[in-house]
Write a structure and sequence with these properties.
mainly beta
Amino acid sequence: MANGSKRHYPDAGPNGKGYLIYAADGHMCAQLMNPDRPRWKDANRPTRSEKTSAFDGFSAYCGRYEIDEAKSIVYHLPDVAWIPSLIGTKQPRPYTFNEDLLTFSDKATDEPGIES
């Protein structure tokens, strides 16, 4: 954030968990979930509300990736995704490396007081 603080990815909540996998052949896969989502009362017969709640706390897509080292941006190119409109897009992910830690970080455009 502009004041130096950080915030969690909203869909994943403060305890978010997930996987981000990059393969040497240029493919990637990302899955992120809120582990605090309510469990379904009947795992075989979830209600409409339970299904909605489960998808509200989950994000996933896979496809190819490209790296622009000069700009420190990796682009995700989803060809499968839980959000249909994500398929076929080019998603920029600005990154930094600190020793072995990869961090994605971008300017927040929806922060109060910040104009995009």
